[in-house]
Amino acid sequence: MYSWLANFVDCGISIQSAHCCPCSSPDRARIVAATPDLISTPPDRHSKAIRFGRLTAQPEGEFVVFLIGMRANQLWRVDRWLPVATAMPRMLKELALQRDYGFLHGEMWFGRTTLMLQYWKSVDALMAYARNRQAAHLPAWADFNRRVGRDGAVGIWHETYVIQPGRTESIYVNMPPFGAGCIAPLRPAVGPLAGARERMAAAPLDPA
């Protein structure tokens, strides 16, 4: 009975949260040709403009990649999964307004299993937010345990990765700023930055 709905929901879509990107422009995407110079500066890093060509981002210092999401195991239990699904936008709004929490950027995809890709300044900042009694996360976690617990209607998950300096590389071809390209300047992936191995070797080390 619900198989058609499961197939539809599982398709999912990719979005970029406006709360994560306070500098985003509502204008339609524009094609922008890559130049040999630095083409992304902090004020327009979150623009939806498509950057034509091969680009790479090179974040400096350590940062954290945090993946988080939920799965509607029982699609008919809207009373269970909808409150969980609506908790994340509240947290994103809070994180966008409270920049000192250390949240840098996020991308979200919807489906029966949701996925949010987040970037944080440090694991300490991430853990501090998770345990902050004045922030939105702790009440949402308590509400999940109270409403759902272990009844199986909804699943939640997360993974945390601490990215060490000089241990990352990226490539973006004909893309608007995305992922690490929203937390670090985008540069043309040409010459010494043309290959993945070369980009990894050229990744900035911790400035300290």
Report on this structure:
- This protein folds into two domains: 76 residues, no CATH class; 101 residues, Alpha-Beta Plaits, CATH 3.30.70.100.
- The protein is built from five helices and nine strands, in the order αββββαββααβββα.
- The termini are far apart.
- The strands form two sheets. A five-stranded antiparallel beta sheet has the order 1-5-6-4-7. Strands 2, 3, 8 and 9 form a four-stranded mixed beta sheet that branches.
- With 208 residues, the protein is α+β, with helices and mostly antiparallel strands.
- α2 runs antiparallel to α4.
- 27% of the residues lie in helices and 26% in strands.
Sum this structure up briefly.
This is DUF4188 domain-containing protein. By secondary structure, the chain is an alpha+beta fold.
Please give the domain count: 2
Largest sheet: 5 strands, antiparallel
Low-pLDDT stretches are 1-43
The gross shape turns out to be elongated
Give, in order, the helices and strands: HEEEEHEEHHEEEH
CATH fold category name of the largest domain: Alpha-Beta Plaits
Order of adjacent strands in the largest pleated sheet: 1-5-6-4-7
Distance between the termini: 59 Å
The CATH level-2 architecture of the largest domain is identified as 2-Layer Sandwich
The top level CATH class name of the largest domain: Alpha Beta
Mean pLDDT score: 78
The count of strands amounts to: 9
**Rg calc:** 19 Å
How much of the sequence lies in strands comes to 25-35%
Structural class, by secondary structure, is alpha+beta
Helix count from the secondary structure assignment: 5
| Estimated helix fraction | 25-40%
Pfam families: Monooxy_af470-like
Protein name: DUF4188 domain-containing protein
